[in-house]
């Protein structure tokens, strides 16, 4: 069965163009033209991925993402025509997996959808790696895509789980932002490198970590991030 992709954009021409490219690539698009329609379609169809325009009437894309994240970790890609990178960072802090700026290439957007869905599916099927990853109080069930801290389940998105598990595989090793992006996303797009900070911020928040006095993820100034070695 083909993956269902919810496309929410108040510009009908853009939404239908994206739908055409998604259909040609074997996906099943579901269209919405404002925030309320997007939320209704999300609840009715339970899509495998959501493409959200930030600037929509009624609840905008950021508002829709907030509602979706209350109940679901479905991958979200933001579309934005705004030049201010702050909007992109806010979107990522709300739990989005990616963003793409307008005007954009429909083929690139479809490629990003495909990459996100591939990561989501492969993460639960990769038998070449241990299903459980543990360091200190943190445990990741790679097959079920669950993160627990001292036995308590934490809510992380697909990309956040990928980043955390990537860092945890070699505690103490420092990874640059570019290395993290290339390993967890497959490629790093222009301007995207800086947004890894937003993902790290969300991971720390979910884990109850303090950036000023970290127990799990430390910032190495001028170099990147590392998962701290945990006491036995």
TrEMBL record:
Keywords attached to this entry: DNA-binding, Phosphoprotein, Transcription, Transcription regulation, Two-component regulatory system
GO cellular component: cytosol; protein-DNA complex
DNA-binding segment(s): 130-229
CDD domains referenced in this protein's UniProt entry, alphabetically: trans_reg_C
GO MF assignments: phosphorelay response regulator activity; transcription cis-regulatory region binding
Family matches, as SMART domains: REC (SM00448), Trans_reg_C (SM00862)
GO biological process, one term: regulation of DNA-templated transcription
Response regulatory domain sequence ranges: 4-117
PROSITE patterns for this protein: OMPR_PHOB (PS51755), RESPONSE_REGULATORY (PS50110)
InterPro entries reported in the protein's UniProt record: CheY-like_superfamily (IPR011006), OmpR/PhoB-type_DNA-bd (IPR001867), Sig_transdc_resp-reg_C-effctor (IPR016032), Sig_transdc_resp-reg_receiver (IPR001789), WalR-like (IPR039420), WH-like_DNA-bd_sf (IPR036388)
One Pfam short name: Trans_reg_C
Residue span(s) of domain OmpR/PhoB-type: 130-229
Modified residues (4-aspartylphosphate): 53
PANTHER family, A to Z: DNA-BINDING DUAL TRANSCRIPTIONAL REGULATOR OMPR, REGULATOR OF RPOS
The protein's name: Sensory transduction protein regX3
Organism: uncultured spirochete
């Amino acid at each position: 069965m083909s993956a269902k992709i919810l496309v929410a954009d108040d510009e009908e021409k853009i939404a239908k163009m994206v739908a055409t490219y998604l259909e040609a690539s074997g996906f099943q698009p579901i269209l919405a033209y404002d925030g309320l329609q997007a939320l209704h379609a999300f609840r009715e169809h339970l899509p495998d991925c959501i493409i959200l325009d930030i600037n929509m009437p009624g609840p905008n894309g950021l508002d829709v993402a907030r509602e979706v994240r209350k109940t679901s970790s479905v991958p979200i890609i933001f579309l934005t025509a705004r030049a201010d990178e702050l909007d992109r960072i806010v979107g990522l802090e709300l739990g989005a997996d990616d963003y793409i700026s307008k005007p954009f290439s429909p083929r690139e957007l479809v490629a990003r959808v495909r990459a996100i869905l591939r990561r989501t599916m492969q993460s639960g099927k990769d038998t070449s790696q241990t299903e459980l990853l543990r360091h200190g109080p943190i445990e990741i069930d790679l097959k079920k895509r669950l993160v627990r801290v001292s036995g308590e389940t934490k809510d992380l998105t697909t990309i956040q789980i990928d980043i955390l598990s990537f860092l945890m595989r070699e505690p103490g090793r420092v990874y640059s932002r570019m290395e993290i992006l290339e390993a967890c996303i497959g490629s790093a797009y222009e301007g995207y490198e800086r947004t890894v900070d937003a993902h790290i911020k969300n991971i720390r928040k979910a884990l109850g970590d303090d950036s000023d006095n970290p127990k799990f993820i430390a910032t190495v100034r001028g170099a990147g991030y590392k998962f701290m070695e945990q006491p036995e």
